[in-house]
Amino acid sequence: MLRSENLAGLAALAALALNAAPAVAQVEANTKEVHAYGGQLFGDDLTDTTISSRTPKLDDDLTYGVRYGYNFTSNWGIELSLGQSASSVTELSSGNVDLDLTTADVDAVWHFNSGSRFVPYVVAGLGYASADLDAPIRGTVNGGAVSIEDDSGFTLNAGVGAKYFATDRFLVRFEARYRYLEGVVDNFDDSLNTFETTLGVGWKF
Question: How far apart are CA 174 and CA 63, in angstroms?
């Protein structure tokens, strides 16, 4: 059986080992991060009225992009993002139309550093969104012919996520984000409430 003095000695050795071990990788003050990500965009109605008795929708589709972050402290950071969604407009009487959506954001990030490799965070910010339709959306509204083109406007976003530091420099990132879009078409436009779920990789330096 282990005596009390032996237990005390083992505890002291464990404490020394922990103090000698290298610090666990996590978010640190005055560091930079670059990320690449991909995931799913979940769309919403594009217009506030029906076009030829149908409501055009931004389809659920792939989204991807890059992010650059700077951490002022171990908790607070700022992030610049550039994203692209290769989507389409559905629910059209004439068939789907491709729509590429580009977003550029400036976000504040708050990290919940726990001293482990797993770092949850919340993010929120604003930006600019620009749509690119392959062809105008054509149809009728109240019996009259209409032609709807693409447009641009501001966007707001907020989300939650987590970073897992596999090494001191390399990390994996999971995120779910709500995105508000002022509108992406120039006529009969409606604001959009969309969601994005993404998985990415990053490097800290």
Answer: 14
Tell me the pLDDT tens digit for each residue of 114-131: 889 999 999 999 999 999
Q: What range does the domain containing 106 cover? A: 4-204
Query: Are the C-beta atoms of residues 43 and 60 closer than 8 Å to each other?
Result: yes
Q: Each residue of 146-181: pLDDT tens digit?
A: 999 999 999 999 999 999 999 999 999 999 999 999
Both tokens of 202, joined, read: 């990053």
**Rounded distance, CA 94 to CA 53, Å?**
12
Q: In sequence order, what are the beta bridge partners of 34?
A: 68, 203
Q: Which residues contact 23 (CB under 8 A, 6 or more apart)?
A: none
Split into its structural domains, the chain has a count of 1
Mean pLDDT of 4-17: 44
- Contacts of 77-82 with C-beta under 8 Å, sequence gap 24+, read 77/27, 77/33, 77/108, 77/109, 77/110, 77/111, 78/106, 78/107, 78/108, 78/109, 79/105, 79/106, 79/107, 79/108, 79/109, 79/123, 79/125, 80/104, 80/105, 80/106, 80/107, 81/105, 81/107, 81/127
| H/E element, 169 | none
Cα(146)–Cα(148) distance, rounded to whole angstroms?
Answer: 7
Find the CATH number of the domain harbouring 135.
2.40.160.20
| 24 band by pLDDT with thresholds 50, 70 and 90 | low
